[in-house]
Amino acid sequence: MHICFLAKTIDPKTGGLGRHVLELTNSLVERGHDVTVITREGYSCEKAKAEVVEVSSPELQHPALNVYSAMPGVYKALKKRIDEFDVVHGHGWISVVYPLFRKFHSTDTPFVYTLHGVSSQHISRKWLKPLAELVSKPEDWNVDEADKLIAVSKDAKERAADYYDLKPEKVEVVYNGVDTENFTSKGSFKNQVLFVGHMNSRKGPHILLEAFENVAKDFNDTDLVFVGEGRDLEEIKNKVGKKGLEDRTRFLSDISEEKLIELYSTSVFVLPSSYEGLGMVYLEAMSCGSPVIGCRNSAVPEVIKDGETGYLVDRSTEAVEEALRKLLSSPEDIEEMGKAGREWVVEDFTWSEIARRTEQIYREL
Description:
Blueprint: E1 2-7, H1 16-30, E2 34-40, E3 51-55, H2 63-81, E4 87-91, H3 97-104, E5 111-115, H4 129-135, H5 137-145, E6 148-151, H6 154-164, E7 171-173, E8 192-196, H7 205-216, E9 223-227, H8 233-242, E10 249-252, H9 257-265, E11 267-270, H10 280-287, E12 292-295, E13 310-313, H11 317-328, H12 331-348, H13 351-364
Parallel strand pairs: 1-2, 1-4, 2-3, 4-5, 5-6, 6-7, 8-9, 8-11, 9-10, 11-12, 12-13
Protein backbone atom coordinates (compact mmCIF):
# COMPACT_ATOMS: atom_id res chain seq x y z
CA MET A 1 0.00 0.00 0.00
CA HIS A 2 0.94 3.66 -0.34
CA ILE A 3 0.18 5.26 3.02
CA CYS A 4 0.14 8.98 3.75
CA PHE A 5 0.82 10.20 7.29
CA LEU A 6 -0.18 13.72 8.31
CA ALA A 7 1.62 14.81 11.49
CA LYS A 8 3.05 17.96 13.03
CA THR A 9 6.38 16.16 13.58
CA ILE A 10 8.29 12.98 12.87
CA ASP A 11 11.17 14.00 15.17
CA PRO A 12 11.39 11.93 18.39
CA LYS A 13 13.12 14.79 20.19
CA THR A 14 9.85 16.75 20.06
CA GLY A 15 7.98 14.22 22.18
CA GLY A 16 5.96 11.03 22.11
CA LEU A 17 3.94 11.83 18.99
CA GLY A 18 7.10 12.37 16.95
CA ARG A 19 8.57 9.12 18.24
CA HIS A 20 5.34 7.25 17.46
CA VAL A 21 5.16 8.52 13.87
CA LEU A 22 8.85 7.79 13.22
CA GLU A 23 8.80 4.24 14.58
CA LEU A 24 5.44 3.26 13.06
CA THR A 25 6.31 4.58 9.60
CA ASN A 26 9.75 2.91 9.71
CA SER A 27 8.13 -0.41 10.63
CA LEU A 28 5.54 -0.08 7.85
CA VAL A 29 8.33 0.59 5.34
CA GLU A 30 10.14 -2.52 6.61
CA ARG A 31 6.91 -4.48 5.97
CA GLY A 32 7.09 -3.45 2.30
CA HIS A 33 4.77 -0.44 2.13
CA ASP A 34 5.41 2.95 0.50
CA VAL A 35 4.96 5.62 3.17
CA THR A 36 4.88 9.40 2.74
CA VAL A 37 4.86 11.72 5.75
CA ILE A 38 3.69 15.31 5.30
CA THR A 39 4.94 17.44 8.17
CA ARG A 40 6.24 20.89 9.06
CA GLU A 41 9.59 22.20 7.87
CA GLY A 42 12.30 21.42 10.40
CA TYR A 43 10.39 18.56 12.03
CA SER A 44 11.76 15.66 10.00
CA CYS A 45 14.33 13.14 11.21
CA GLU A 46 17.39 11.68 9.52
CA LYS A 47 16.39 8.21 10.75
CA ALA A 48 13.11 8.30 8.82
CA LYS A 49 12.80 5.52 6.24
CA ALA A 50 9.64 7.00 4.75
CA GLU A 51 9.55 9.80 2.20
CA VAL A 52 9.18 13.02 4.21
CA VAL A 53 7.55 16.09 2.64
CA GLU A 54 8.25 19.21 4.69
CA VAL A 55 6.02 22.25 4.22
CA SER A 56 7.13 25.74 5.14
CA SER A 57 4.95 27.99 7.26
CA PRO A 58 5.25 31.26 9.19
CA GLU A 59 6.47 31.00 12.79
CA LEU A 60 3.92 32.46 15.19
CA GLN A 61 4.08 33.16 18.92
CA HIS A 62 2.87 29.80 20.23
CA PRO A 63 3.47 26.15 19.25
CA ALA A 64 -0.28 25.52 18.85
CA LEU A 65 -0.59 28.46 16.47
CA ASN A 66 2.37 27.17 14.44
CA VAL A 67 0.37 23.99 13.77
CA TYR A 68 -2.45 26.12 12.36
CA SER A 69 -0.09 28.19 10.22
CA ALA A 70 1.26 24.99 8.60
CA MET A 71 -2.17 23.75 7.51
CA PRO A 72 -2.34 25.60 4.16
CA GLY A 73 1.00 24.09 3.12
CA VAL A 74 -0.13 20.63 4.17
CA TYR A 75 -3.33 21.12 2.16
CA LYS A 76 -1.36 21.99 -1.00
CA ALA A 77 1.01 19.05 -0.58
CA LEU A 78 -1.88 16.66 -0.03
CA LYS A 79 -3.79 17.98 -3.03
CA LYS A 80 -0.81 17.26 -5.32
CA ARG A 81 -0.46 13.67 -4.18
CA ILE A 82 -3.86 12.43 -2.98
CA ASP A 83 -4.43 10.13 -5.98
CA GLU A 84 -1.31 8.13 -5.01
CA PHE A 85 -2.53 7.13 -1.56
CA ASP A 86 -4.51 4.09 -0.45
CA VAL A 87 -5.06 5.45 3.05
CA VAL A 88 -4.43 8.67 4.98
CA HIS A 89 -3.41 8.32 8.63
CA GLY A 90 -3.60 11.40 10.85
CA HIS A 91 -1.80 12.26 14.08
CA GLY A 92 -2.70 15.47 15.88
CA TRP A 93 -4.65 18.57 14.90
CA ILE A 94 -2.71 19.20 11.70
CA SER A 95 -4.38 16.21 10.07
CA VAL A 96 -7.75 18.02 10.05
CA VAL A 97 -6.52 19.13 6.63
CA TYR A 98 -7.76 15.84 5.17
CA PRO A 99 -11.34 15.98 6.54
CA LEU A 100 -11.50 19.53 5.16
CA PHE A 101 -10.06 18.32 1.85
CA ARG A 102 -12.79 15.69 1.58
CA LYS A 103 -15.44 18.41 1.97
CA PHE A 104 -14.29 20.08 -1.25
CA HIS A 105 -12.87 17.26 -3.37
CA SER A 106 -14.23 13.92 -4.48
CA THR A 107 -12.08 11.24 -2.88
CA ASP A 108 -12.83 7.90 -1.25
CA THR A 109 -9.38 7.39 0.31
CA PRO A 110 -10.01 6.09 3.85
CA PHE A 111 -9.01 8.22 6.84
CA VAL A 112 -7.56 6.70 10.02
CA TYR A 113 -6.93 8.93 13.03
CA THR A 114 -4.84 8.04 16.09
CA LEU A 115 -5.94 9.34 19.47
CA HIS A 116 -2.85 9.88 21.63
CA GLY A 117 -5.27 10.94 24.37
CA VAL A 118 -7.90 13.68 24.54
CA SER A 119 -6.02 16.85 23.59
CA SER A 120 -7.63 19.21 26.08
CA GLN A 121 -6.73 16.82 28.94
CA HIS A 122 -3.03 17.31 28.18
CA ILE A 123 -3.32 20.83 29.64
CA SER A 124 -1.96 21.03 33.17
CA ARG A 125 -3.34 24.48 34.07
CA LYS A 126 -7.07 24.12 34.76
CA TRP A 127 -7.89 27.72 33.96
CA LEU A 128 -6.63 27.12 30.40
CA LYS A 129 -8.87 24.11 29.71
CA PRO A 130 -11.74 26.12 28.12
CA LEU A 131 -9.23 27.74 25.76
CA ALA A 132 -7.59 24.37 25.13
CA GLU A 133 -10.93 22.88 24.12
CA LEU A 134 -11.41 25.72 21.65
CA VAL A 135 -7.90 25.57 20.19
CA SER A 136 -8.03 21.77 19.87
CA LYS A 137 -11.34 21.84 18.01
CA PRO A 138 -9.69 20.28 14.92
CA GLU A 139 -9.34 17.05 16.88
CA ASP A 140 -13.13 16.95 17.26
CA TRP A 141 -13.45 17.12 13.48
CA ASN A 142 -10.77 14.45 12.99
CA VAL A 143 -12.66 12.13 15.34
CA ASP A 144 -16.01 12.80 13.64
CA GLU A 145 -14.70 12.29 10.10
CA ALA A 146 -12.36 9.33 10.63
CA ASP A 147 -13.38 6.03 9.08
CA LYS A 148 -11.53 4.31 11.92
CA LEU A 149 -9.98 5.54 15.17
CA ILE A 150 -6.94 4.06 16.87
CA ALA A 151 -6.44 4.69 20.60
CA VAL A 152 -2.97 4.17 22.07
CA SER A 153 -4.37 2.66 25.29
CA LYS A 154 -7.57 1.31 26.82
CA ASP A 155 -7.75 4.42 28.98
CA ALA A 156 -7.46 6.67 25.91
CA LYS A 157 -10.28 4.72 24.25
CA GLU A 158 -12.55 5.00 27.31
CA ARG A 159 -11.89 8.72 27.74
CA ALA A 160 -12.41 9.42 24.04
CA ALA A 161 -15.58 7.32 23.90
CA ASP A 162 -16.97 9.28 26.84
CA TYR A 163 -15.76 12.70 25.69
CA TYR A 164 -16.83 12.32 22.05
CA ASP A 165 -19.78 9.95 22.63
CA LEU A 166 -18.28 7.32 20.32
CA LYS A 167 -19.51 3.87 19.41
CA PRO A 168 -16.96 1.37 20.79
CA GLU A 169 -16.64 -0.42 17.45
CA LYS A 170 -15.26 2.74 15.83
CA VAL A 171 -12.16 2.66 18.08
CA GLU A 172 -9.42 0.04 18.03
CA VAL A 173 -6.77 -0.08 20.78
CA VAL A 174 -3.22 -0.39 19.44
CA TYR A 175 -0.58 0.42 22.05
CA ASN A 176 2.45 2.59 21.53
CA GLY A 177 5.69 0.67 21.32
CA VAL A 178 9.43 0.83 21.62
CA ASP A 179 12.33 -0.19 19.40
CA THR A 180 13.58 -3.00 21.64
CA GLU A 181 16.64 -3.63 19.48
CA ASN A 182 17.80 -0.03 19.89
CA PHE A 183 16.52 0.68 23.40
CA THR A 184 18.49 -1.97 25.24
CA SER A 185 20.72 -1.85 28.32
CA LYS A 186 24.05 -0.09 27.86
CA GLY A 187 25.26 -0.36 31.45
CA SER A 188 24.32 -1.05 35.06
CA PHE A 189 22.77 1.11 37.77
CA LYS A 190 24.91 4.14 38.71
CA ASN A 191 22.99 5.64 41.64
CA GLN A 192 20.91 7.93 39.44
CA VAL A 193 17.25 8.93 39.51
CA LEU A 194 16.05 9.98 36.07
CA PHE A 195 13.17 12.16 34.82
CA VAL A 196 12.45 12.50 31.08
CA GLY A 197 9.62 14.77 29.94
CA HIS A 198 8.33 18.29 29.53
CA MET A 199 9.13 20.44 32.54
CA ASN A 200 5.58 21.37 33.49
CA SER A 201 3.23 20.60 36.34
CA ARG A 202 1.39 17.79 34.50
CA LYS A 203 4.58 15.74 34.29
CA GLY A 204 5.40 16.31 37.97
CA PRO A 205 9.10 17.35 38.11
CA HIS A 206 8.34 19.40 41.25
CA ILE A 207 6.96 16.28 42.99
CA LEU A 208 10.08 14.31 42.13
CA LEU A 209 12.37 17.11 43.32
CA GLU A 210 10.63 17.31 46.70
CA ALA A 211 10.82 13.52 47.09
CA PHE A 212 14.48 13.46 46.07
CA GLU A 213 15.36 16.19 48.57
CA ASN A 214 14.19 13.91 51.39
CA VAL A 215 15.78 10.79 49.92
CA ALA A 216 19.10 12.51 49.24
CA LYS A 217 19.77 12.94 52.95
CA ASP A 218 20.00 9.17 53.45
CA PHE A 219 21.37 8.18 50.02
CA ASN A 220 24.21 10.66 49.69
CA ASP A 221 25.77 8.95 46.66
CA THR A 222 22.61 9.23 44.53
CA ASP A 223 22.08 12.00 41.95
CA LEU A 224 19.04 13.34 40.10
CA VAL A 225 18.93 13.95 36.34
CA PHE A 226 16.22 15.97 34.60
CA VAL A 227 15.98 15.63 30.80
CA GLY A 228 13.61 18.04 29.09
CA GLU A 229 12.54 21.61 28.59
CA GLY A 230 9.39 23.56 29.41
CA ARG A 231 7.88 26.56 31.11
CA ASP A 232 8.72 25.33 34.64
CA LEU A 233 12.40 24.65 33.94
CA GLU A 234 13.77 27.86 35.50
CA GLU A 235 11.49 27.47 38.52
CA ILE A 236 12.79 23.93 39.11
CA LYS A 237 16.39 25.12 38.71
CA ASN A 238 15.80 27.87 41.27
CA LYS A 239 14.33 25.37 43.73
CA VAL A 240 17.36 23.13 43.28
CA GLY A 241 19.57 26.10 44.20
CA LYS A 242 17.53 27.00 47.26
CA LYS A 243 17.62 23.41 48.46
CA GLY A 244 21.40 23.25 48.05
CA LEU A 245 21.18 20.35 45.60
CA GLU A 246 23.20 21.88 42.74
CA ASP A 247 25.97 19.28 43.12
CA ARG A 248 23.45 16.43 43.13
CA THR A 249 21.24 17.55 40.19
CA ARG A 250 21.84 17.78 36.44
CA PHE A 251 19.66 19.39 33.78
CA LEU A 252 19.97 18.12 30.19
CA SER A 253 18.11 18.84 26.96
CA ASP A 254 18.41 18.08 23.26
CA ILE A 255 20.54 15.02 23.96
CA SER A 256 21.30 12.25 21.49
CA GLU A 257 19.36 9.02 21.50
CA GLU A 258 22.54 7.22 22.48
CA LYS A 259 22.91 9.43 25.56
CA LEU A 260 19.25 8.91 26.48
CA ILE A 261 19.66 5.13 26.28
CA GLU A 262 22.76 5.35 28.49
CA LEU A 263 20.79 7.34 31.09
CA TYR A 264 17.86 4.91 31.05
CA SER A 265 20.27 1.98 31.43
CA THR A 266 21.97 3.36 34.54
CA SER A 267 19.03 4.91 36.43
CA VAL A 268 15.80 4.40 38.31
CA PHE A 269 13.20 6.14 36.15
CA VAL A 270 10.53 8.32 37.76
CA LEU A 271 7.73 10.23 36.02
CA PRO A 272 4.94 11.30 38.44
CA SER A 273 2.62 12.50 35.68
CA SER A 274 -1.04 13.35 36.24
CA TYR A 275 -2.11 12.14 32.78
CA GLU A 276 -0.59 10.01 30.02
CA GLY A 277 -2.23 8.75 26.83
CA LEU A 278 0.11 5.79 27.33
CA GLY A 279 3.58 7.00 28.34
CA MET A 280 6.25 5.90 25.87
CA VAL A 281 9.10 6.97 28.14
CA TYR A 282 8.14 4.27 30.65
CA LEU A 283 8.42 1.70 27.85
CA GLU A 284 11.79 3.09 26.72
CA ALA A 285 13.13 2.98 30.27
CA MET A 286 11.92 -0.60 30.86
CA SER A 287 13.32 -1.70 27.50
CA CYS A 288 16.73 -0.47 28.75
CA GLY A 289 16.38 -2.42 31.99
CA SER A 290 15.36 0.42 34.28
CA PRO A 291 12.78 -0.07 37.07
CA VAL A 292 10.11 2.61 36.79
CA ILE A 293 7.92 4.62 39.15
CA GLY A 294 4.65 6.13 37.90
CA CYS A 295 1.27 7.17 39.28
CA ARG A 296 -2.01 5.27 39.47
CA ASN A 297 -3.86 7.30 36.87
CA SER A 298 -4.80 7.45 33.18
CA ALA A 299 -3.01 4.74 31.14
CA VAL A 300 0.05 4.35 33.37
CA PRO A 301 -1.27 1.14 35.06
CA GLU A 302 -1.47 -0.43 31.59
CA VAL A 303 2.29 0.03 31.24
CA ILE A 304 3.76 -0.62 34.68
CA LYS A 305 3.25 -3.94 36.49
CA ASP A 306 3.13 -2.82 40.11
CA GLY A 307 5.71 -4.62 42.21
CA GLU A 308 7.12 -6.45 39.16
CA THR A 309 8.52 -3.89 36.71
CA GLY A 310 8.43 -0.95 39.14
CA TYR A 311 5.93 0.77 41.40
CA LEU A 312 2.57 2.45 40.88
CA VAL A 313 2.01 5.11 43.54
CA ASP A 314 -0.36 7.89 44.51
CA ARG A 315 0.60 11.24 43.04
CA SER A 316 2.24 12.75 46.11
CA THR A 317 5.72 13.57 47.35
CA GLU A 318 5.35 11.05 50.16
CA ALA A 319 4.35 8.17 47.88
CA VAL A 320 7.14 8.85 45.36
CA GLU A 321 9.65 9.14 48.20
CA GLU A 322 8.57 5.81 49.68
CA ALA A 323 8.90 4.00 46.33
CA LEU A 324 12.32 5.55 45.73
CA ARG A 325 13.53 4.48 49.15
CA LYS A 326 12.38 0.90 48.49
CA LEU A 327 14.34 0.69 45.26
CA LEU A 328 17.47 2.51 46.38
CA SER A 329 17.64 0.28 49.46
CA SER A 330 17.56 -2.89 47.36
CA PRO A 331 20.03 -3.34 44.46
CA GLU A 332 18.49 -6.80 44.00
CA ASP A 333 15.05 -5.29 43.31
CA ILE A 334 16.54 -2.77 40.89
CA GLU A 335 18.11 -5.61 38.90
CA GLU A 336 15.13 -7.97 39.05
CA MET A 337 12.53 -5.30 38.18
CA GLY A 338 14.75 -4.09 35.36
CA LYS A 339 14.88 -7.60 33.87
CA ALA A 340 11.13 -8.08 34.30
CA GLY A 341 10.42 -4.75 32.61
CA ARG A 342 12.60 -5.67 29.64
CA GLU A 343 10.80 -9.01 29.23
CA TRP A 344 7.38 -7.34 29.50
CA VAL A 345 8.19 -4.77 26.80
CA VAL A 346 9.71 -7.30 24.39
CA GLU A 347 6.64 -9.49 24.79
CA ASP A 348 3.89 -6.90 24.19
CA PHE A 349 5.21 -3.55 22.94
CA THR A 350 7.33 -4.04 19.80
CA TRP A 351 6.79 -1.77 16.81
CA SER A 352 6.76 -4.71 14.40
CA GLU A 353 3.64 -6.07 16.10
CA ILE A 354 2.07 -2.59 16.27
CA ALA A 355 2.73 -2.06 12.56
CA ARG A 356 1.16 -5.44 11.77
CA ARG A 357 -2.02 -4.55 13.68
CA THR A 358 -2.17 -1.10 12.08
CA GLU A 359 -1.76 -2.62 8.63
CA GLN A 360 -4.66 -4.95 9.40
CA ILE A 361 -6.87 -1.92 10.11
CA TYR A 362 -5.86 -0.35 6.80
CA ARG A 363 -6.73 -3.55 4.90
CA GLU A 364 -10.14 -3.83 6.56
CA LEU A 365 -10.94 -0.32 5.31
